[in-house]
């Protein structure tokens, strides 16, 4: 109805404007309007052609006050459409002077059409100067009998023309107003029709509201039933979730116990590995010292053997020479005994015999010394052989220790594989439980969103018919329960992820220890092979390449070698760890975002 009020206001404003314009026209249609021209126009206005016959022109024309006052009091700035009509008396005066006056044709001249925007100043009331204010006084002054001679008939003609123009304008405005009134009446009829339609719609809407209220009551009963069902379902699911949480807690406790056992085993293995490393280092130092001493003794033996062989050869040659010399001397002695020829030659020979005897004694002493040295060397060689046998025993003990360590390593690898399988199974089970819990949560969220949408739709139909307080209380209780469940799930998932991270760290430590142990075993085997290569002739045929006992040990050795040699493999492990961390962060953020969306 606001547009109808606006139309009525516009009609009232138009009527007020029309009344004002008519009043202004009635006030101003008697007022004199003269043109602003030169003195020639003034002479023409004061001297019409039809007044020359009746009365001569007065000589004292300067004493006429109304013409000058009206000339000075007229506004100058505006150009009104009445100037076009004011030019007609000038043309009539020219025609009168030329000898052909036609005053009656002026009234029959076609006047232009005027509207509200295009109208003279007398119509709108723009003439608000001293001329309009003193109109009555001037009229009274000009109505005196002394001043009747000074009244100009051109002004009366001009006023009649202006009145005709104003009458035409008023007729046009009346036509416009009649058209607007007809339009307003048609709009009023339309508004009456619309009011009737609106009343009919109100009646139908009241009927529909009654039906909607009945539907709201039925929906309220359905909502209460649904709330009861939701409450029952939430209680059942809460019990299920509690049982699942208890089972998960028990599994987590078992995993913690297993992790503690694994940590203890790792600590024991680390201590054993440290003890083995210390013993290995000691044995390596002893082996190196024994190898150096054995090498020195072997060199000394070879030198002494060569010297003994040389001395034996010299002794045999000396024996042969001495035997030959003794034989010659015996022959000479026999010859001398037979001939008893004691000459100077015999004396010389006797001296030579004595010198030879002394040399024989010296050589016998040297041979005795060499024999003692040979005996000492033999005893030293026997000692070296005993040491060699003890070193062989140590090597055999080391081989037995290596076999025991290999067996322990195989057992530890079997345990690690079993633990890895158990961890994988636990990870699969936990992943399945988490996925099932997430799906259940999503289903519940979808159900809750569906119930919320249904409740919001019912509430939007008629909020006054619903018991909003009870619904809000139950909704708050449900949201608190869901919040508690989500928090517990997040905590359990965080614990599971932390346990998985600890297991991965322990697995990496085990792999590092295995690779270190394998590298040490390889170094020990290489050193042991080198020792056996020097002393034992049977071990020279054995190759240096170690043949692993099982496929798992070979795979672990290959993984260790790949980690040491290839940095890409290490980068792959680092990327795997970063991916695992990002997955944990993404899951945490997803759960938190789902919680925020649920509460909003």
TrEMBL record:
Pfam families for this protein: Golgin_A5
Protein's membrane topology: Single-pass type IV membrane protein
An individual GO BP term: Golgi organization
Chief place where the protein resides: Golgi
InterPro entries registered for this protein in UniProt: Golgin_subfamily_A_member_5 (IPR019177)
The UniProt record lists the keyword Cell cycle: no
Membrane-spanning parts: 568-586
Signal peptide stretch: none
Residue ranges with Basic residues bias: 52-62
S-adenosyl-L-methionine among keywords: no
Renumbered residue ranges of the record's region Disordered: 25-122
Subcellular location: Golgi apparatus membrane
Family matches, as PANTHER family: GOLGIN SUBFAMILY A MEMBER 5, GOLGIN-84
Designated name of the protein: Golgin-84
Taxonomy of the source species: Eukaryota, Metazoa, Ecdysozoa, Arthropoda, Hexapoda
């Amino acid at each position: 109805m606001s547009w109808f009020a606006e139309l009525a206001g516009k009609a009232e404003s138009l009527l007020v404007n029309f009344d004002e314009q008519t009043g202004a026209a009635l006030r101003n249609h008697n007022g004199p309007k003269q043109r602003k021209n030169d003195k020639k126009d003034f002479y023409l206005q004061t001297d019409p052609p039809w007044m020359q016959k009746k009365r001569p022109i007065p000589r004292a024309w300067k004493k006429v006050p109304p013409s000058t006052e009206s000339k000075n009091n007229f506004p100058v700035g505006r150009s009104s459409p009445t100037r076009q009509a004011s030019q007609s008396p000038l043309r009539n005066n020219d025609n009168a002077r030329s000898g052909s006056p036609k005053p009656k044709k002026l009234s029959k001249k076609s006047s232009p059409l005027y509207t509200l925007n295009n109208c003279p100043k007398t119509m709108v009331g723009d003439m608000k100067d001293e001329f309009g204010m003193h109109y009555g006084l001037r009229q009274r002054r000009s109505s005196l009998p002394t001043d009747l001679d000074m009244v100009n008939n051109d002004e009366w003609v001009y006023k009649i023309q202006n009145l005709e123009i104003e009458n035409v304008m008023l007729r046009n405005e009346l036509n416009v107003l009649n058209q607007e009134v007809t339009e307003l009446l048609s709009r009023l009829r339309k508004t009456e029709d619309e009011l009737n339609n609106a009343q009919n719609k109100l009646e139908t809407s009241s009927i529909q509201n009654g039906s909607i209220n009945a539907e709201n009551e039925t929906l309220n009963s359905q909502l209460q039933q649904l709330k009861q069902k939701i409450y029952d379902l939430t209680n059942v699911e809460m019990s299920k979730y509690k049982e699942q949480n208890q089972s998960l807690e028990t599994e987590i406790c078992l995993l913690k116990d297993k992790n503690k056992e694994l940590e203890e085993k790792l600590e024991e293995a680390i201590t054993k590995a440290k003890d083995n490393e210390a013993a290995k280092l000691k044995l390596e130092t002893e082996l190196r010292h024994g190898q150096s001493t054995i090498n020195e003794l072997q060199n000394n033996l070879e030198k002494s053997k060569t010297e003994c062989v040389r001395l034996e050869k010299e002794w045999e040659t000396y024996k042969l020479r001495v035997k030959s010399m003794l034989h010659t001397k015996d022959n000479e002695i026999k010859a001398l005994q037979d001939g008893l020829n004691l000459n100077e030659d015999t004396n010389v020979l006797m001296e030579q015999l004595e010198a030879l005897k002394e040399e024989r004694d010296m050589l016998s002493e040297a041979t005795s010394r060499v024999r003692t040295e040979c005996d000492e060397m033999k005893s030293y060689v026997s000692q070296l052989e005993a040491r060699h046998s003890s070193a062989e025993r140590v090597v055999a003990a080391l081989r037995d220790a290596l076999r025991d360590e290999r067996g322990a390593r195989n057992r530890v690898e079997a345990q690690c594989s079993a633990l890895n399988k158990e961890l994988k199974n636990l990870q699969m089970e936990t992943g399945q439980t988490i996925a099932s819990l997430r799906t259940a949560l999503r289903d519940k969220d979808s159900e809750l969103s569906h119930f919320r949408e249904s409740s919001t739709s019912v509430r939007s139909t008629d909020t006054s018919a619903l018991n909003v307080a009870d619904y809000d209380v139950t909704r708050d209780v449900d949201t608190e329960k869901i919040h508690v469940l989500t928090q517990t799930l997040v905590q359990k998932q965080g614990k599971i992820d932390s346990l998985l991270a600890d297991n991965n760290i322990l697995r990496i430590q085990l792999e590092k220890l295995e690779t270190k142990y394998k590298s040490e075993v390889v170094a020990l085997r290489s050193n042991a092979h080198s020792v056996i290569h020097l002393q034992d002739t049977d071990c020279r045929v054995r190759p240096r390449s170690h043949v692993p006992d099982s496929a798992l040990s070979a795979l672990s050795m290959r993984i260790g070698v790949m980690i040491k040699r290839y940095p890409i493999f290490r980068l792959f492990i680092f990327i795997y760890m970063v991916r695992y961390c990002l997955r944990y962060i993404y899951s945490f953020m997803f759960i938190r975002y789902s919680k925020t969306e649920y509460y909003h």
